[in-house]
Design a protein that fits this description.
The protein is of the alpha/beta class. Helix content is about 35%, strand content about 15%. The protein has eight helices and eleven strands. This is GAL3A protein. It comes from Pitta sordida (Hooded pitta).
Amino acid sequence: MGKRVAVLLAGCGLYDGTEIHEASAVLVHLSREGAQAEVFAPNIPQMHVVDHVRGQPTPEQRNVLVESARIARGNIKDLAQLDVKGMDALIIPGGFGVAKNLSTWATQGKNCSVSREVEDVLREFHAAQKPIGLCCISPVLAAKLFPGCEVTVGHDTECDQWPYAKTAESMKELGCKHVNKHVTEIHVDPRNRLVTTCAFMCNAPIHDIHDGIGNMVREVVRLA
């Protein structure tokens, strides 16, 4: 039987939830590696709902679990049901939902808090020395919770290709080591069992982002 990997989602959509292409890439590559993906999301209200055509918030209210179920084709569980003992690894795709619904990074940066439920899950996987895969903005969760850890969100010098590079500086201020990597590359922190890749933190062709996530997934499954 393949490795069982928990995939934690934060809604559905770049600006207010999980980045859909990243989540899809994670699930595709887990399937390719023969791993069994089990999808979870917290049963909480979203911070807000964004109109993805206009890029502006709307008055709507939505639920993170209900919206995440769109990506999981309905095959999803409340994060409260996640039994870490029964899992071999954890992967968290990116998207602004990580910074808005799983934490308050979007509004508070390095001074953010991580949702108690999400923090508990991450700490339990970490304590059990089970690998954690993080891509795009989600490595900020590790930077906040595991001082001294090593991660990548791409590059630390802002330019057209790296519009979110200031994130790396904020993570360094939390005491973690940021390692510059290209979009198809990963960084492995063997001590903390973290595997990270930058994904859409880089303005890159979508196939390069897909390949980088594939490398991350492959290493997570190998370590599990």
